[in-house]
Fold each of these.
Amino acid sequence: MDSVVFVTGTDTDVGKTVISCALIEYYVAQGVKVAPFKPVAAGAVQTEQGLRNSDAVQLLSASKSHYSYADINPFIYEEPIAPHIAAEKTGNPIYSTLLMEKLKSLSLQSNLVVIEGAGGWQVPLNREESLADWVRTLECPVILVVGLRVGCINHAVLSYLDIINGPNKLVGWVANTIDSNVDNISEIIDYIGSVIKAPLLGVVPYLKEDDTAIEHIDFSLLSTTARL
C-alpha cells in the first residue's frame, strides 16, 4: 500500500514508539499530513474519555493532528499482556478486516500513515492471524527497531529474515540503546549491519523518558529505499 510505513521491533519495549514519534515529527516538519495508527494496544488506563494507551497518545501528539483516538487505536485492552490473549479474555476479538477499514479511512485523510506494531513482528492477532500476516497484505515498507541488549542479535536476525520472506521491503533499521549497561555496542551493530541489507538509519543512545530520538536518526535515507 502506498504512503504507509510499518514500524516493528525485535521485541516489546524496544522503543518502537520513540522511533515512530521521531518519524512522524520528521515528516510533519516537512509539511506532510501524517496519520498515526496503533492498530492494537494492550496496556491502558481508564480516563474520563475511556481507555487510553500511552503509546497511542504519544503518536497522536507527535502528529499534531485532530484524528479521534478511536480512529488511530481501534483495539485497546487494559491488561498489558499479549493482545490475542487480552482479546480472548475480554471477549473483544481483533479483526483484520476492521484494521483495513480504519487504515483506508486514515489514508484518505492524510499523505502518510505511520503504523506502529505491538510487541515484535510475529505477535498474534488471534488464533489464525498474526500482525505480520496483516502487514504482508499491505505490501508496505517496514522499519525495524532493534533494541540493543543481550540477545538482540538473534532477535534482529530472525525478525529481518521473516520480514523479507514476503512482499514487504525492509527500508531501514534503527539501533536503539534500551540497556544503559549493554557492552560492545559497536560490535553488535556491526554484526547486525552485516546481515541486514537495508540502511542503518541511526544509532539512538540511551534516552531519558521525555527525550526525543529525532536528532539521532537520518530519515532522509528512506528517500532512496522507499516511496516516502
Amino acid sequence: MGLTMNYVEIILCLVAGYFCGCISSGYFVGRFFRKDIRKLGSGNAGTTNVLRNFGVVPAIITFVGDLAKAVVPILLIRFCFETQTYWYLLCLYCGLGVVLGHNYPFYLGFKGGKGIAVTSAVVMSAAHPIMIPVGLAIFIVVVALTRYVSVGSLFVAWYIPANTLIYHHGEEHFIHMMLISLLFTLFAYFQHRENIIRLIHGNENKLWKRK
C-alpha cells in the first residue's frame, strides 16, 4: 500500500467515524423528554447522566445507540479490509473518529459525552473476542465494588491498548497502532478530568447509595 493511499484511507476513516460519532443518542433521548441533557446533572450527553436523570430504559437506549454508531462503521471497515495487514489500524482510526464525534459533536457546540460507551464499542468491534467478556466483567466488578462509574470507565480506557499489545505485538504497524490506541486512553482521562479531581477529594457522585 502506497503512502498516498494510506493517508487517504486514514482520513476517510477518521471523517466517517467522526460523523457517525456525532449521532448523540443521549441528546436525542433527552429531546424526547423535551429536555436538554447537557443542562442536567453532569452536563454530559452520555449514558450515566441519562440514567441519573431519566431512568434505566432511556439509559439503555442511549448506551445501545452509542454502541451501534461505533460498531456499524468499524465492522464495515473490518469486513472490507480484513485481508490487509493494516485492517486493525484503520479500525482504530475509525473508532478514534467516533470518539471525537461523540465527545465533540459539531451541531451541539462540540459538547457531547465522555466516550466510554463508544470506546467499549470499538473494543467489541475491532478487538479480539476474548477481550469483550473480560473487559465487561472487570467494569462490572470495579463499579460494584467502588460504586463509581467513573472508576470503571477509567479501567475501560485501557482495553484498547491492552488488546493492541497482546494481539498485535510484532506486527508491521505495531508502534503506529499502539500510539493510536493510547490516544483512546488519553481522551478518556481528559474527559474524566473533573471526575478524577472529585475522586481525589472524595466527593465524586456514586451510582447508588447504600441505605
Amino acid sequence: MTTQINESVYKDQPAVTIESAVIAAQFLPGIGAKMASLRYKPLDLELLVQRPGAAYLRQPYDGDYVAGECSGFDDMFPTIDACFYQSYPWKGTPIPDHGEVWSLPWQCDVDAGSLHMQTRGVRFPYRIEKWIAFDGERSLQWRYRLTNESPFAMDFMWAAHMMIVLEEGAEIVLPPGVNHIVNRLSFNGALGNYGDILDWPVARLPDGSERDLSRVRPPSARDADKYFVKGRMPAGWCALTYPRSGLTLTVSFSNDTVPYLGILLNEGGWGDLYNIFIEPCTASFDDLNVAKTRGECSTVAAGSVWEWTMGIQL
C-alpha cells in the first residue's frame, strides 16, 4: 500500500495529514499533536467531533480544556482530572486539567512513511513520544514510549481522549468476559451514584428498570454517562458499529500496558453533541490519586520506559 504524508492546514492551524486509500488523519503538532480529523474516504465520513468556526480555540498551558476546542482526539497525560501529585519528590505539585501534553507543542518528524512526534513535561521530568503509521489501508496504528528522565518512580495516567461521532442505532461492542461496569458520571442520575457497579450489557438501574447499555439511544435522550469497565480488560479492543453506513470502528490497544477502558456516551446531554468518548487508559477513574487508591494506577520506574500501542481499524 501507499502512504501519503503532507503538510496541510486545519482551520487556521498548521497540520500534517497521513493517509491511505481508505483513511485520512490530520494532526496538529503545535497543539498537543492532536488528531483533529479522521476521515473514512470511501464515504467522505468524518468520524471525530468537529467544532464550528474558522479559528481554532486554543488554550494556554494549564488552561481549561473544555473552554477550548474540545474536539477530535487528544492525549491525556499524566491525569485527566486536575489534581495534586501525592508522592515524593513531587508531592503537592498541581497537575493541569486534562494533563500537560494536550496544550504543549510537539516536535514532528516524518520517517519512512510514519509520523514521529514528541514532547517533554513541564512540571515533571519525562519525555513522551508517539509513532503513527498504517498497518494496512484500513488500520492506523500508534506506538507510544514514555521515558522517565528522573531517578524517582513516577505515577501516571495516559488516556486516549477520542470524541467519536455517533449515528442513531449504533452499538457498543466489548470483548467477551466484560460483565460489569463502574459508574463515574451520570448526568441524569439514571446509573446511580459515583462508584456504583452495574451489569454489562443489560443493567438493572437503581429505579428498577433495565437498560441495554450497548445500544445507543437517540440524541433526544438528552443524557450523558461515563463509566469504566470494572477491573482490567480481558482483551484490548472496543468496537462501535454504525448501522446506517455499515461501518465498524474498532479501537485496539495493548491491554498488558493499557489495561483499563472508559466510555463516555453523550446522547445529546452535553454541549448539544451526539458522540462517544472511547478512552483506553493506563489508570482508572480520570484522577491519578483515585486510581492509586483503587489500586489501578500505573507507575514507570526511575530512569525507565513504558511502552504501549493503540490502533483504529475501519
Amino acid sequence: MKIALGLEYDGAAFSGWQRQSHARTVQASLEDALSRVANHSVVTWCAGRTDAGVHALGQVVHFETEAVRTLRSWVLGTNANLPREVAVRWAVEVAPDFNARFSATARAYRYLIFNQPTRLALWAHHATWELRPLDAPRMHLAAQALVGEHDFSSFRAAGCQAHHPVRTVHQINISREGSQVVLVVRANAFLQHMVRNFTGALLAIGRGERPVEWMGELLAARDRTQAGVTAPPEGLYLTRVDYPAHFGIPPPDSDFSHP
C-alpha cells in the first residue's frame, strides 16, 4: 500500500527536511513517528526538500507500508508521535505510480517580509525584517522578468545538486499588506535557494539600490556571483504542491496556502 500525507511544519525547529546523522530534521521525526504506527521501518519521499529554517504549510510526502491502518489512524497515530512543530493534515491512499516529487506538476512558495522601523519579536523566526522602506510595485515589476522557462543559474546555490538549471516560473507576485511585503512564486520546480536568491535581489531593487532592469540582467548573466545576497530562510514557506487530478491529492485548505 502506498500512502500520501499532507504535512505542515515549523522549520525553525529543524536543520531542514532531509535526515542527517547528527541533527534534528523533519524527515527523521516523521519517519520515526510513522514507524511507530506501522510497527516497521518507514522511509518517506517528499515533494520538495526544504532547507534549515524554512517552513511548510503544504508539503506532500509518500511512503509504502505493509501495515493495515485506516487513513484516520495514520493521521492521528502519527501526530501523537510527532513533535509539536510538525503535523500531518491528511492521508490518502494513492496509486502505485504516484511519487510525491516526480508526480508533482507545480510547487508554490511564499516569502514574508515585515517592512517596518522596529524588529520583530513573535515573528522573529517566521518572517524577515527589513528596516528600510521597500517599493513593492517596483519589486513586482522587476520580478516579471523571471516568468517563463529560463536558465536560472544566477539564482542557484553553489551546492545545488539539480541536473540542470532550467525551470519554468508560472507566476510571481509581490504585494504589500500593511507592513507586510509578500512574494508568491509558482513554478514547475525550484533549484536550491532559488526563491531566497530571487528575494535577495528583489530586496535590493525594492530599496532603490538597483534598477528594475537589474533582474533581467542577472537572469541573462547566468552567473550566481553577480546576483547578490541570499535572503534569510525564516521568511520562506512551501505553501502548495499541485498534482494531476486523478491522483486524488487534496488541495490546500488555507487561504495562506494559495498563491
